[in-house]
Amino acid sequence: MGRKFSVVLVISLGFGLLGAINVASAIVVDPPTKSCLDKTVGVKAANKIVSAKKLTKAQTAQVAKCKSSASSGGSTSGTTGTTTGSSAAGMVSLNYGLLAYIGSQQAGLGNISDPALLQVGGTLRMFFKNGNEPQIPIAGFDNKIHSYISTDNGKTWTLESGVRIDVTSPVTVRAAESGGYEAWGWVSGGGDAMTRFTSATGSDFIKGAGNVINASACKSADGIAAGFLGDPQVVKVASGYLAYAHDLAATGKAPFKRHMCALTSTDGSTWVLDTSKTLAPQNDVQTNPETYRNASGVIEQILPIDKIDPQTNLRTGMQIRTSTNDGASWSELSELSFFAADPDRLDLSNGDSLLAFGGFDQQKGGLLGVAKKISTAYKASRTESDMQTVVWTISGASQADIKIKNLCLNSDLTASIKFATSGSNITATYAAAAGGHGNSCVYALIGSEQAIK
Questions:
Q1: Within a 10 A sphere around the Cβ of 267, how many other Cβ atoms?
Q2: pLDDT of res. 418
Q3: DSSP string, 173-186
Q4: What InterPro entries does this protein map onto (predicted)?
Q5: Which of 35, 120, 169, 432 allows an S-S link to 186, with CB 3.0 to 4.6 Å?
Q6: Quick one: pLDDT band at residue 53, thresholds 50, 70, 90?
């Protein structure tokens, strides 16, 4: 392994993404504007604006608002390829190791996203949506739920043929206490109905009953009523079922503070809004949160909350809270060791704890990733600035232990890193080729455990 250092990694994404947007005024998305968009509409939506050939009215308004804010507000820190300030601040222990990842546009599929894990005997099944992505020329999509299977506890995956669940939304799946398996998704027709699906085998699911939910009484920290809800995540409780879904803010305006709405049901088919359980943070819940009862009986809730410190650009990991009383009360939020979209948890019968997650790259599309909870001596922090730099500070590792990869592209970026030593630190800088599209799929993987940050 060699000598251990504290390691500072810098990824410079260059200015290739700062091209003119194809609108009449030829707006240029400069770094301050891009940073504002990341914080107000979310990284994924901001990336869509950057790559769009023509902006919608809503996107035009979002860009104009951010350009106005950037020109009238304070300055943004420049990108020099060096680190400043307290680079060791915000370091957390790395306790998830990457097991596997699968990108889009493979095996005849389109844009794959939104993993949902289920164990059936000795087989793991990862359900996912095989969708479209209007910004990328994609074929092979049907907007239905397909699946990969694993027989080695998530290390390798094989695509199953056919459609597993005939629904056009992502789903949540679980083993039912009474036997068999159940899933939920949104079924359109006279309004989107939260609908229960059942299966005797955990493979092919049959549509059951559901109902349309008016979520307008569920409000954000700023008092904004929820509109369309995202994908619900469901757990069994003593009174029936508890579900959480986040507000998509489909008709809202930036800056977003998307929140989570609670739903309850006695039978899993008829759902009502429970506003007493609303979670409305001051930061944006970017994508679908996870709600999962672990092997110890504790309900975990994992939230992809967008938290970048405006002073240090420190990116915190996903946030987690827990409940031991069926969601009547919750612990304070704490930080997981990395950030990703669309988390999904599963404890295996062999004792492994898995966390599936998503991602997105404008060149390729979505991602299905699977990580395993581990224990390591590594610690790390991650800072992001204007989509042009990502800086990791890593301790407990040697330079040879570290790989930098774009998981969506299945691209190892390590060879392009320029390493330099400074005392006990190693600084490494990666300069992306012109035309790079963000960093949401770029991760540091450390050691044989592939500890992910």
A1: 11
A2: 74
A3: EEE-TTSSEEEEEE
A4: Sialidase_sf
A5: 169
A6: low
Quick one: which of 4, 2, 38, 27 has its CA closest to 390?
38
For residue 88, the Cα-to-chain-centroid distance in whole angstroms is: 25
Q: Where are the alpha helices (DSSP H) in 322-410?
A: none
Tokens for 245?
Answer: 């879904």
Distance from C-alpha of 304 to C-alpha of 114, rounded to nearest angstrom: 13
Q: Are the CB atoms for 360 and 47 separated by under 8 Å?
A: yes
Half-sphere exposure of 151 (CA within 13 A, CB side): 3
**How far apart are the two ends of the chain, measured CA to CA in Å?**
20
Sheet with 334-335, strands from edge to edge, namely: 290-293, 299-303, 319-323, 334-335
Phi, psi of 279 (to 5 degrees): -110, 115
SS3 of 14, please? coil
Q: Is the pLDDT of residue 286 over 70?
A: yes
> Running DSSP on this structure, what letter comes out for residue 222?
T
Using an 8 Å Cβ cutoff, are 154 and 172 in contact?
no
The Cα–Cα gap between 50 and 29 comes to 7
Q: Give the 3-state secondary structure of residue 34.
A: helix
Of 370, 345, 373, 372, the C-alpha closest to 358 is 370
Q: What does 140-181 look like in DSSP terms, one character per residue?
A: S--SEEEEEEESSTTSS-EEPSS-SB--SS--EEEE-TTSSE
Give the span between the Cα atoms of 184 and 211, in whole angstroms. 11
CATH architecture assigned to 96-304+340-373: 5 Propeller (2.115)
The C-alpha angle 402, 403, 406, rounded to 5 degrees, equals: 150
Cα–Cα distance measured from residue 291 to residue 301, given in angstroms and rounded to the nearest whole number:
4
| Both tokens assigned to 34 | 């891009």
String of DSSP letters for 80-119: -SS--S-TTTT-EE--EEEEEEEESS-TT--EEEEEEEEE
Largest CA-CA distance found in the chain, in angstroms, rounded: 65
Output the pLDDT for position 269.
98
Tell me, what DSSP letter sits at residue 372?
E
pLDDT value for 249: 80
What backbone torsions phi and psi does residue 212 show, to the nearest 5 degrees?
A: -80, 140
CA dihedral 313, 318, 319, 323 (to 10 degrees): 180
Q: Domain extents for the chain?
A: 5-14+79-91+379-452, 31-72, 96-304+340-373
Instruction: From residue 389, give the alpha-carbon distance in Å to each of 9, 77, 179, 187, 278.
Output: 10, 11, 49, 41, 35
- Give the number of C-alpha atoms closer than 13 A to the C-alpha of residue 267, restricted to the C-beta side: 7
E strand or H helix that includes residue 371:
strand 365-373
* pLDDT score for 137: 75
pLDDT of residue 32: 55
